[in-house]
Specification:
alpha/beta; 2 domains; 40% helix; globular
Length: 333
Amino acid sequence: MPKLSQAVQPPDASAPAESAEQLLRRLEWTVLRRLDGLLQGDYRTLLRGTGMDLADLREYQHNDDVRHIDWNVTARLQQPHVRVFTEDREMGAWFLLDLSPSVDFGSGDQRKRDVSSQFVAVLARMLTRHGNRVGAMLYGAGVDAVIPARGGRHHVLHLLHTLQTRPAADGDGAHDKATGLTRLRELLESAANLVRRRSTLFVVSDFISEPGWEKPLGLLAQRHEVVAVRLLDPMELELPDLGLIPIRDVETGEQLLVDTHDAGFRRRFARIAAQREAELRQALGRAGVDTLELSTDDDLVDTIMRFVDMRKRRSRLSGARAGGKLPAHLMHA
């Protein structure tokens, strides 16, 4: 059974598109203004874990934060040592953008590619307004574009213009000939080689890919703060009764007719979709990354605020665990 996200035709791409300037101005008024009021300047909650560099190691002193104890060095020297950090106020962020054919799907007014661009615009502008730099790696026919990390509104406009003027991927080059699926691992491995300084990495993808991306994603998370921004559409989870419809796999080009009036077919589709959902969430959890699910029918502000709330709860839990004598992974040893 084909995945619907690879099958249903995307919305009409012939409609006039917003320019980068129009899109950014609209989002500044409709999204960023709302986020300013809701976050009340607390943007570091959204980007927890960034802006700190390891400066030195020294012996533990009274009143030192036990969360900074380096347990490997302590075991080797038989004397507690703590890591000393310096704050880097100029944070860097990279957007690793999956622009393979499946992100051109959308069952409503928006495609997954559209919500991806809006998310990038909001987060990039949010960061650059505070003097930070953003860069991007674009994956279509392989990793075929890199936008160096820079700051300023003009740079955000350049990034958006690049996204908007890229033609839709045609299914060649970046796809395995046997499976017809994207090789997302190429994007993640390229990022590991390119981004040397510790940064926040937003992996924006629907994760419809050939297997093998889980390990490189986990390796990235060991060095960087990684957020998996998972693009999805409601039709990927539950197929409505639309009668007999033609569908086309946008990654392989295969076409066929399916009878969506068949309740048994819709149940099988939903069961397979639910199984894939569970497997994907488990894989992202094993990689040790936070996940933000971004649907084509969601309000972007609500989605980002749900993510912020999740990060706050995670931060409080981490602080509670760190209050003991040992780090969390040794408390239960």
